[in-house]
Amino acid sequence: MSLTIAQLNAAVPADAVALLDGIYEHSPWIAQRALAARPFRSLAHLKHALVQALAASSGDEKIGLIRAHPELAGKAMVSKTLTAESTNEQSKAGLTDCTPEEFAKIQKLNADYNAKFGFPFILAVRGPRGTGLSKREIIDTFERRLFNHPEFELGEALRNIHRIAEIRLDDKFGADISLGNDVWDWHEALSAHTDPGYAEKGQLTVTYLTDAHRACAQQISSWMRDCGFDSVHIDAVGNVVGRYEGATPDSKTLLTGSHYDTVRNGGKYDGRLGIFVPMACVRELKRQGRRLPFAFEVVGFAEEEGQRYKATFLGSGALIGHFDPRWLDQKDADGITMREAMKHAGLDEADIPKIQRDPARYLGFVEVHIEQGPVLTELDLPLGIVTAINGGVRYVGEIIGTASHAGTTPMDRRRDAAAAVAELILYTEQRAAKDGDSVGTVGMLEVPSGSINVVPGLCKFSLDMRAPNNAQRDALTDDVLAELKAICARRGVRYEIEESMRASAAPSAPAWQQRWERAVDALGIPLFRMPSGAGHDAMKLHEVMPQAMLFVRGINSGISHNPLESSTNDDIQLAVEAFQHLLNDLATEQAH
Known about the structure:
By secondary structure, the protein is an alpha+beta fold. The protein is 43% helix and 15% strand. It contains 21 helices and 16 strands.
């Protein structure tokens, strides 16, 4: 019979520690310290208390915990001295049935890893879905993490220990994570569709109106119908639109969604999480035979990434009347215009103006999104409340110096264009860091026709600066451009720079941010507020209606726009439950 939070809260300390035996390998002290946080409001609250207990421990205690874990496919497995929990986990991953070659490979990796880090390699081998990683995935992860910095790898080991503990807690408490599992499975299934040239490499790439893109739209449409949406259609720009009508025909609508296109060789969860989480909510409403006092509209936006055509936020932009007809004449790498692609997909450009929404008919826009960064992962928090989507400005520029002989030009006589840009890069890094939540990046750097024995006479570069509000963004930009001018004057070089993009910050609407906060708090999870450094479809809807976002933790250090992008079934389950709380909260408000 499964353990309950009520039983754990009621148990005397010694019994409570015993109830949590085996959660952390040979380390009952973690549970003992975490119990000081009782009474626990939920399983999520218990998990966080355990995380906090370990976070507050000494460095020696952390290393001791890691060393208490057995090596993967190591001596303990061979001698059958693993704990029951570890035996089950390694068995599910197939590590108890290695070929001689696989076993030798893992043994060599264990030795190399121990020699570098001084502790055993820790991996939650049951994986993000809880059903077990393949041996190939385990070996690939082993090899990749061997290159990590020791301090970073210590954090990765501890994060994997927490994931191991989370899965063990789910088993012990009989946790229902079926919604998280279903949403996770939808992501994996949709990733079967990918553009030609990438499918052969096992890479995910879905760009606007390709065959793979249209197959995704059809698949999402089919799943929406299965979930019980009242109407589902693909609109004039390829957005997939599902509506679950309210209790009365004249009720306003809550809008949500995100994009289903991807970057090249991207991840499976960017954008799509914001479609599938609310789809799961609609399915549960339909199963309950329940109607909300407002309509619920979920949109899978056809294009956000701007990969095939230079038309970023095309899908969400069309809903607010910001489709630029000049985009239709753009050509992709194969010379196919957007107009031709739309015609081939059966879309009628004349219908595009008709899909513009009337903001007066909408309550607002909310979006769930994978974080795409390391913050939640490093804090060991599953969810974060977005306070604002950063405003940004981008520049492309070049510094012009004098190309000269690397051997005969004295250091104090040089007009080195690349060195000037290098100085600007360091200043940008330092200046953005001063704000605490600004970011500055030089992502493109080129010395045209550079030679190993020539002082660079020309260096081309980009600048990308972002901040949670426009005033902070502009102050950062002003300082960086002033420093660029000063660097060039001091070094005797000149510069040319051109602004290529400017986007306003999109602060979350206070009332909607508070609804997300109440939803997360209801789950027993600490509130963590954070800005979004990346742009999202919510930025476009922000122009015409109130918006707020919820971030979901990603694994693998929160990496995104990368095949390693993923999230766990547990975190996705919490995201679905948070959305359900928001819907219920809003329904209560609307009923009064």
